[in-house]
Write a structure and sequence with these properties.
Layout: E1 5-9, H1 16-30, E2 33-41, H2 43-49, H3 54-57, H4 62-86, E3 101-109, H5 113-118, E4 124-128, H6 139-148, E5 153-156, E6 167-172, H7 176-184, H8 186-189, E7 194-200, H9 210-219, E8 224-229, H10 235-248, E9 253-257, H11 263-269, H12 272-279, E10 284-287
Parallel strand pairs: 1-2, 1-4, 2-3, 4-5, 6-7, 6-9, 7-8, 9-10
Antiparallel strand pairs: 5-10
Amino acid sequence: MTFKSILVPLEESESLDSVLSTALKVAQMFNSHIEGLCIRSSLAGAIAVGFEGGVAALASTEEQFEREQDTRIDRLKTYFDKFVRKNGLSEDESSPIAGPSATWVESETTGLGLYGQYGRFFDLIVVGRPTPGILAPAMNTLETVLFDTGRPVLIAPPTATKTIAKNILVAWNGSSETARAIALAAPMMAGAQRITIVSVEGATVPGPSGTQIAQNLERHGLHVEVINISEKHSPAAAGKIFLDKAKETNADLLIKGGYTQSRLRQMIFGGATNHILNESQVPIFMTH
C-alpha cells in the first residue's frame, strides 16, 4: 500500500501554500490523487464548534454570514485552481499513469466532524501546523483528522521544505502510537536516503528500544542510525531535543506518534507532542 489518495482540508491560512506544496511532493512520489475539501459551515455550526470565523459569526446575521462564506469559498477555490494549473495537475483521477491529479470538493456541514468521517477512505491526510500569532489552520481540524479518521496525518510546517522523506527522523518513545506511525510510514521510509531514530531517557514508556526498532527496519533493507540521549529529560524537554536533532541532521520529515498521554494532560503539563506541534519547521508524519 502507498499513499495513492490524499485529502487536504482547505482552510484560509498563511501556511496554505505549504500545505498544498507538501501534499504535492507526496503525490509526485506516488502518483497520487489530491482532493481539496472545503467545508461550507452553517452559522449555528460555526458558533457551536468554533469553526473558522466562528467568533465573528456571533455578531453576524445569517445573511451576512452566508455572504462571508461565499467570499471565503471563492477565495479558496481560486487559490486551489491556481495551484492545480501551476503544477500541471490532471483533474482526471482515473488515470494515475499520467501523474498526480487533483480535484476540488465542497460540502455543507454543521461542523468539522465531516473531516473525521470523510477522511477514513483516504490513504493520507495533509493539514497545516497550528501556529500561534498568525492566521493558521485550526487545532480542531488537526485533532479531528488525527483522532477520528484512523488514518495517518502529515502536518505541514508554516513554510514548505524543499524535499520530503529523503532524510527522516523518528521520535521514538516506546509507544504503540509511534510504532503504528513507523509502520504506516513504510512507503516513505522505503525511499529515504537516511533514517535516524532518536530516543530520550525520561520521555519513554515501556516498550522496545530505539536499537530494536532500528534492527527491525534494517531487516527491510533500510540503513538506520540510532541516537540515544541517556541524560534524563522531561517529555516537554524531549520535544525540543527531537526538533534540535531534526535540525542537526537536516531531516525533512519527522515521524511521531500522537499524544501518548491524554490530550488534557499534555495541555496542562506539556509534552513532547505539544512542543513539536507548536515549533516544528519540518513536516510531521503522525498517527494515533
